[in-house]
Structure formats: C-alpha cells, structure tokens
Design brief:
The protein has a domain of 142 residues: Jelly Rolls. It is globular, with a radius of gyration of 21 Å. Strands 2, 3, 5, 6, 8 and 10 form a 6-stranded antiparallel β-sheet that branches. Strands 1-9-4-7 form a 4-stranded antiparallel β-sheet. The longest helix has 14 residues. The protein is built from 10 helices and 13 strands.
Length: 329
C-alpha cells in the first residue's frame, strides 16, 4: 500500500521546506576583501552654496518620481499590488482576512484568524524594497512622504521609518552614503526631533541630502533602501537644476532568494533600512532578495504558505522558529 499523499494545502509548505536544505550552500559567499576606499564626499570648498548642502532641498530642485525609476524587491508585479510600496497582492486581503474559512494551527480559530489578518496589515510596509539609479550629479536629494510611526520602545525612528542611501563607483563595492536620520528632515529638524515634536503616528514629509561628492561629474550607481516599517506614500530623487537627472539601472533578471520570517527579518531593530539582514544579504551575495518578514506573525499558516510559494525563487529560506513557540503544546 503506497503512503498517503500530503493534502494540497500542505504541499505549499512542503515545497518550501524541501528547498531549505540547499540554502546554506546557495547563500555561501567568499570572505570579504579589505579594500582601501577613497572618500565619497568632497572635503574641499565647492561651488554650491552651503544652503544647498545639508539643508532642505532648494525650490528649483529637479525631481524624479521613484516609480519612474522602478521599485524593486517585490514578488508580485505592481499591477497586482494595492500600492507599489507594499509587499502582498491585493487579492491576499480576502484570503488572509476571511472570517469564515477554516484556520489552522491551534484550536483557537478566532485567534488564528486575527493572526492571519495581521499578516496582511504587516505586508503593507515596504521592508526590503529599493530603488536603483545612476547619475553624475555631485549632489543628491531625496524626499519622501510616510505615515511615520515614530519607532517603538526598542527601535530608533530612522531605522523604523527612514530611508537609506548606498553608492557604488565603477567596479567598486556598495558603500553607505547617507540616511534620513542624519539630515534636517522636516520643518521640525531631524527625524529624532520630529519624533519628539509629533508623538504618535502621523503623515509626514521628510528629505535627505548627499554631497558634494568627489569627482562630481563621474557617474555613480545608487541604491535607495525604503523604510523597514513606515508606510510610504511617495518617494522622489532630486538633483540641482542643470545637473544630470537620475536614470534607472537595469533590473536584475535572476530568480531571487525569497525569505519568509519574523520581526528579525521584518527589520527589527536595524538602525538603518540598509542594515536589515535581507538587504545586507543581497549586497554580500550580489543577488536579488525578497523580504517577506512579518513581525510576530511568522507562523507558517497554510494560507500564507500558498502565497509565499507563488514567488518564483532560486531558493526559499524559512526563519519562523522565533514565532512558532506559541503553538507548542
């Protein structure tokens, strides 16, 4: 008599689990080589006025919408998403917030359904999403509109709701350039000052600046990592009038590494968006990575598994152990 075949619902997780055995090999990377790096910022006097450097963007700044440059790191196309800055398809809401469908694991179905629906809410954050572009402008500005939630008891505002910029010169490594946390970001000043001035969630506009840069006419590549938890409304990249506008870098065509996990993957409590471990991994292995972390809700429910399995991945990595203890009897 042949063994019983797993149910169709169970097969999604079995497919993911089968891939984990090869994950360590697939993600192995050579030891990093220490390279003496040239300065990125220009320490010498520059033709641009001090008001244009380290302050709010000038009124005549030329802006490019991030959606024009392309927002990457998503498992579904923009047309399937409620917003280009969210991570799960629109149809997932009906699946995850269904009050009548059976829910497993655990005997408490109401609790199980609440946990499922919370996955949908947590998917609205742009964790792991990024924008890549090239420009030869010696100064860059970024402005963004976010429903900033002012961090939490263990998480600084910039790591929670801020943006993070990395730069790459020809043939060189990706290097941290600046983040919204060390910029005069709003009418209140820095993001930290804003958190004190506006307690609680609020929709806020922020900006950040990089420059002047050494060899300002040399094209550089940039990766702008979007916030780990702040709910983004819009993002724009700006340059001084007359400088080279940002141009989108070609999107990666390799199948991505797809990560599914808990708050640790969902960014907690990285000091900057570029230090979320999924974004660090992407730079180390030079491969696209998709972040499907859901704080407190990496519970491997069948409905979530079916959605995660839709991603066309080179390998799946599951990191849910930290949340699974609540279902241990």
């Amino acid at each position: 008599m042949s063994p019983a075949r797993p149910s169709v619902k169970a097969q999604s997780w079995l497919l993911l689990i089968a891939a984990v055995g090869s994950a360590a090999v697939a993600l192995a990377a050579p030891a990093a080589t220490v390279v003496a790096e040239k300065p990125l910022l220009d320490p010498l006097p520059h033709s641009y006025s001090p008001a244009a450097v380290g302050g709010m963007p000038p009124a005549d700044t030329m802006w490019t919408d991030a959606l024009t440059l392309g927002v990457h790191g998503k498992a579904w196309p923009d047309a399937a998403l409620p917003s280009p800055y969210m991570r799960m398809p629109t149809r997932a809401q009906a699946v995850l917030c269904n009050e009548t469908a059976p829910c497993y694991p655990g005997p408490d179905e109401s609790r199980c359904r609440a946990n499922l629906c919370e996955v949908w809410s947590l998917s609205n954050t742009p964790t792991g999403l990024y924008v890549q572009f090239s420009t030869a402008s010696p100064i860059l500005y970024v402005r963004f509109r976010t429903r900033a939630q002012n961090g939490d008891w263990l998480w600084a505002y910039n790591g929670h709701s801020g943006l993070d910029l990395y730069a790459q010169e020809a043939g060189g490594p990706w290097r941290w350039a600046t983040s919204s946390g060390n910029n005069p970001g709003s009418a209140y000043g820095s993001m930290a000052a804003d958190a004190l001035a506006q307690p609680g969630a609020s929709i806020t506009n922020y900006s950040m600046v990089l420059g002047p840069m050494v060899n300002g006419t040399v094209p550089r590549n940039f990766t702008l990592y979007l916030s780990a938890r702040g709910l983004l409304q819009s993002v724009e990249v700006g340059v001084p009038r007359g400088e080279a506008a940002p141009v989108a870098m070609a999107p990666r065509t390799e199948k991505p590494v797809v990560l599914y996990g808990t708050s640790i993957l969902h960014g907690a409590a990285a000091g900057r968006a570029g230090m979320v471990w999924s974004t660090q991994l992407s730079r180390v292995i030079d491969q696209p990575v998709i972040n499907l972390g859901f704080s407190g809700h990496g519970l491997m429910q069948q409905q979530v598994g079916a959605l995660v399995a839709e991603a066309e991945a080179s390998v799946y990595v599951l990191d849910c152990e930290w949340n699974m203890c609540q279902y241990v009897r």
